[in-house]
Structure formats: C-alpha cells, structure tokens
Design a protein that fits this description.
alpha+beta; 6-stranded mixed sheet; 14 helices; globular
C-alpha cells in the first residue's frame, strides 16, 4: 500500500496574488489564511515594500521589509519614503533584469522572491510554521516577457524557494494544477481544457482524465501559453485614459525644434513592476527636465507627481475597479484620484474590448494552438474550465463560448484552484506524471 505524505504544500506564486494550499494525511486541500485587520484572506498580494527606519544612537538605518497587504499598508502610510514593488514575477524570465537597488542595497530577483516568501511564511502563522521538505510550485506554460528565458526563471525560483527551507522543489504547470483540482469533480472519463488567466500570462492545457481502479489517471495531450493577460489589459486602459493626461503624445522644445515626448516613459506603465523601477532610474532626471521645455508642462508635472509620490497603487486600484465594473455593465466611470491628480472618464465596454483586441487575438491563437497540438477539434473537448481573474472579462469568455458552447464551460475557484491542485498533486504516488524538477545548469 502506497503511503500518503503527512503534509503536502502547493504554492501558486502569481503575478497579482499568491495562494498557498496544504493537505494533511488523506484529508482535503485547505487554503492557508492570513489574518488581517479587515478579516482573513487567502489571496496574498504579490507585493513588497521597503522602508528605512532611522537607527538608534547613531546606528545605520534599518531596512524594514513587508509583503502582501502589509506592504500595501506600509506604502499607504508613507508613500514618499516607501519603495513599493508589485507584479515582480513578470521579470523572473528576463535576462535584462539583473538587479535593482533599494535604499543602497542590491537585490537580485531571487532576493526579492526570498524576502517575499519569508514574509508570506511569517504571516501564515502556525499553519506555515513547520513546512515539509517538498513543495509543488506552479509555473506558467510561457513566462511573461518579450524573450523569456525559462531556465533563468526556474533557476531564480529554485534559489528563492530554497531559502524558505525546501529541499525538494518540483514544478507543475499552473493550468495542470487547476485541471487536477477540477478533475476531482468528474463523474466519468473526460478530455478537459483548462484556461488559466493570470496577471502576466494566459496558459492552456488539454488533459485526458480517466479513472482506473478508483484512481485518477491523466494523459497530457497539449499545452500552450502566451505572455499576455490581466496586466496587458491594464496597460491598454492606462494608455488610452491616463498616459495622454500625463504627457504622452505631447511635444517639447529643443532649440528651434518641437519634438514628441519619448514614448519609453509611458511603456513602463505596461508593467506594474517597471513603474516602480522607473522612479529610481536615470530617466527620472530627464522627465524632470522636460517639465521646463514641454509645451504642456502641466501634464509632465502630473507624470512627475505620479512617479515621485508613488501613486502607482492608487492607479492600479482605479484600473481594477473599471475592469470589474465593465465585466457586468455596458458602461462605467473610470476615476483616478491621487494627490492633485484627477482623471475621470466614462468608458463603454465596447471601447475597452477594442483596446484589448490585440491581446484577445493572441489568446485566441494560443487556444487554437493547444487544440491543434492535441489533434482535437472543439468537439473532442468534453469540459472547459476557466480560472483566474481575467476569465470574468466577457470578451475573454466569448472566445470559449464561440468554440465550445455554454454547456461545456465551467468556472469557480478562480483564485484557489491552482494552489489546491498543486497540493493534491504533492501526494500522488508518481509525481513525474504531474510535475518535474528544474533542469539547472551544472
């Protein structure tokens, strides 16, 4: 008889949120909950804050780090003196990102990840006090970025998770984790397509599930992914509604010439992590100088305020509120107010869908690619499970309704399915069917 591990743990480290699930013996997967002033949460925001506290009696300043909602709280309390970073998963596979300096301390990606995980563990309390040696970590099918380096990303993950004390680190594709979670509901053999929409990536897996002598067996038929999802939708909203009010498309004077404001200042809004880094970059000096020569200096002044006063999180909340409203309404009001900056506009759902048309096309292409690789047509798929925040966007759901029909589509557990599936995978007798270890250079 195969022994069941006493404890298994699955960690869905996401671009926007991180979720942890554990099993004990042969019991169900349960989510780790984090007590906050507003009540318990299980979706732990993937964010970090850094703040310097003056040392006593002439000692050097002490760097205080926080994560999740506590990072947000630290930032809200003192935005001018707090370095706030979110969505940092998006540069895990970027060779261009080598390090960042925070209050004169050098941080590699794995340093950021380790600090985040250690704070996650601390806030998890007794549930995470004693961890098993093995962890099943979710990973996207395709990492975010223009030219993602998968081996680099996994090496960085490995270093970060080892600092939490794990010695056996295994990786499972995020949609496979979700598929395993949903497959427990199946009453009969089925071919399942799982679509997982994160903040940085959209991933698709087609898996055949069969029951044999009471055990659930799977055959992976195909997978595909694309490095666009919720954060890309956010950028389209900002590009249309916010960036023009911060100077994008306007001009500045250079001797006798009138030149466009450089576009690169606004591409940072495509990723929340880059917005935080722009504030500390050499481009910030150039942006300040532009206020003196811009033909519309009030717009550049707004841009400087957004960056200097760390209004990125307020902007994130305004964008998220608009997306949520447009998921159930044909029209909604976008309102971004922070400091002296106020931008308010009415947006129709059809406008939003037009803005995100390139991303919708990329998602459609990836879905069709998964079908093609599996050798199946839409009729060969029995069930479709949608998970992740962007699965609520009506235009995204329409991609699947057109191909598979409403009867095959299910959703639910949008934020917990991956982590719970990963934890359940951890007690499978043949882990190699569901997960793998990173292939790291010798």
């Amino acid at each position: 008889m195969t022994s069941v591990p006493q404890t298994t743990i699955g960690i869905d480290f996401g671009t926007t949120n991180t979720v942890v699930s554990m099993t004990h013996g042969d019991g169900p997967a349960t989510l780790v909950r984090f007590p906050t002033a507003g009540g318990e949460i299980f979706a732990f925001r993937s964010a970090l804050s850094f703040h310097a506290v003056m040392g006593a009696n002439g000692r050097p300043n002490q760097l205080v780090t926080e994560a999740g909602p506590w990072a947000i709280e630290a930032y809200v309390e003192d935005p001018l003196e707090t370095r706030f970073i979110q969505s940092f998963k998006t540069f895990a596979a970027s060779a261009a990102f080598t390090e960042t300096k925070i209050l004169n301390k050098r941080y590699l990606f794995e340093d950021l990840l380790a600090d985040f995980l250690l704070k996650l563990k601390t806030h998890g309390g007794p549930a995470m006090e004693t961890l098993p040696p093995r962890v099943i970590v979710g990973r996207p099918v395709t990492f975010a970025g223009g030219n993602p380096d998968e081996a680099l990303a996994l090496a960085r993950y490995e270093a970060g998770f080892r600092r939490l004390g794990f010695t056996d680190i295994r990786y499972a594709y995020e949609p496979v984790g979700a598929a395993f979670f949903f497959a427990r509901q199946l009453k009969q053999d089925a071919t399942v397509l799982v679509a997982d929409f994160g903040g940085g990536t959209s991933d698709f897996s087609i898996v055949r599930f069969e029951r044999d002598a009471g055990r659930l067996r799977s055959t992976a038929l195909a997978r595909s992914g694309v490095g666009v999802a919720g954060d890309a939708f956010d950028y389209r909203i900002i590009d249309q509604l916010v960036s023009p009010e911060l100077g994008k498309g306007s001009l500045y004077k250079a001797f006798d010439n009138r030149l466009p404001i450089p576009q690169r200042y606004y591409t940072a809004f495509a990723r929340w992590d880059q917005l935080a880094l722009l504030r500390a970059s050499k481009d910030m000096r150039d942006i300040r100088a532009l206020e003196r020569t811009a033909l519309e200096p009030e717009k550049i002044a707004r841009l400087i305020e957004v960056l200097d006063d760390n209004h990125g999180y307020a902007l994130y909340r305004a964008v998220s509120a608009l997306k949520e409203a447009l998921s159930s309404q044909d029209e909604a009001t976008f309102r971004f107010e922070a400091g002296s900056v106020l931008i308010e506009k009415t947006v129709r759902r059809t406008d939003f869908e037009g803005w995100i048309a390139p991303e919708l096309k990329a998602i459609e292409t990836a879905v069709d690619q998964a079908l093609e690789r599996s050798g199946l047509g839409p009729d060969g798929v029995d069930r479709v499970f949608l998970t992740g925040g962007s699965s609520f966007v009506p235009a995204v759901r329409q991609i699947f309704l057109r191909r598979f029909g409403a009867a095959k589509i299910e959703s639910g557990g949008e934020f917990e399915s991956i982590a719970s599936g990963l934890a359940l995978i951890g007690r499978e007798p043949d882990l190699d069917l569901w997960s793998e270890k990173a292939r790291l250079p010798a």
